[in-house]
Design a protein that fits this description.
By secondary structure, the chain is of the alpha/beta class. Helices cover 37% and strands 19% of the residues. It is built from 19 helices and 21 strands. The longest helix is centred in the middle third of the chain and has 30 residues.
Length: 518
Amino acid sequence: MPKIKRALVSVYDKSGILEFAKTLKEFGVEIVSTGGTAAYLKENGIDTTSVSDITEFPEILGGRVKTLHPKIYGGLLGLRENSDQMQELIQHDIAPIDMVVVNLYPFEKIVSKPDVTRQEALESIDIGGPCMIRAAAKNYLSVAVVTSPGQYESMANELGETNGEVNTETTEKLAATAYALTSNYDRKISQYLTKRTDNAELPDTLNLNLSKVRGLRYGENPHQTAALYAESGQLSSGLLKAEQLHGKELSYNNLIDADAALGVVQEFDEPCVVIVKHTNPCGAAIGKSIKEAYLHAKGTDPVSAFGGIVGINRKVDAETARVISEIFTEVLIAPDFDEQALEILKQKKNLRVLKLAEFNKIEKAFQLKRIQGGMLLQDQDFKNISDIDFNVVSEREPTEEEWMALKFGWRICKWVKSNAIVYSTQDRTIGIGAGQMSRVDSSYFAVKKANEMQLNLEGTILASDAFFPFRDGVDVAAKAGATALIQPGGSVRDEEVIAAVNENKMAMVFTGVRHFRH
């Protein structure tokens, strides 16, 4: 349990450092510091020894070299229990350093600026800080390494309880945190340089550093443990930026479903509403108002809408809040809520209300999925409708209304689990078939659901996330009343499928893009 007699303080983020330095002084700790930090402490009446006074060498190269010296690193790395090493320190007039208080240049923040130059990026790479942190952490049995203003209060409390000492359990935890910090710092630098020099779409080495945001009650099922993590502890975008305005804590399943709902409504510029159940849209619509869109989305499958997750891409008004409140809804996510709408929604005890102000900020990141013994990595399916070259393969061209319906259905189909079939009009879903083992079964299921809800399939279009392997899917669609189809194409039986479309005087468009979701 090291007694803190001498501390090296060198911080970029000076939040809370004055109070912590005063605490150290109360326990008679000598503070050693570097240029900017030393000046700041002295200006505020805290006696400080400059590193250059100890090393008898000035800071050079514009501050690039400050602490890289044997009189600093000998004090950090000397083993207190090794008498030979302690004698060696005395021989070279090196005093031990018992605590390092360091935080690093904000490299990640600086390189995230859109106009950052290469020189700015390179100058924001901290050298001395990570070296001191790693050295102190290596010798944690004798040295406490404090790397964040968030640690100052607990350290001050412990010093008070132990009369200036730090428990070895604490220094070990601090060391683990320190190595996680330097590892992540190096990873961010590596990512920046790799992005500049490597044109490969996927990295050769995948380094992840995730910080726990909070524990969750359980995972997909009550017997599974779960937690929410953020990359590098940063709440950068998407759901992690959402502000919960009402309701119980979000569950594992809530978060997954809310993310799916968010993805669907982000596809549209028009007022759009989707209702999601088990990651699948059970109804989606666009409209002149979000109330109209909600009612049409709910109308696709009001039974499944019970207990669903609702995504809306506009500010929620009171009228829409009232109709949403008519049935049990688990989660509602939207860019904003007017005051009256929020009052109405807060009357529903079990409704979780999420406000995501940066609604259209889409984080383009990799998707990860664990398998036994490894990890699968892919970029996300960001193939937008504007990126597609539509190819009409039928004898008949789609009408203007059919084109609008085809493009609407295609955007929804992208978010339905494979095998995915969506029957829709130009502004709403009519029947959705998801996750069936065959494409024709998905089509049968979508028709069955539409019929149960007494929805008219005459004049609808059918969107399929992958090609039809046989003509039977077309025949089902024609019998149901669909007049046009949109699908990727690419089957060995495309000609047979096209012939079926022409026989039924339907129109069909190939996209050349598949949207499987497993």
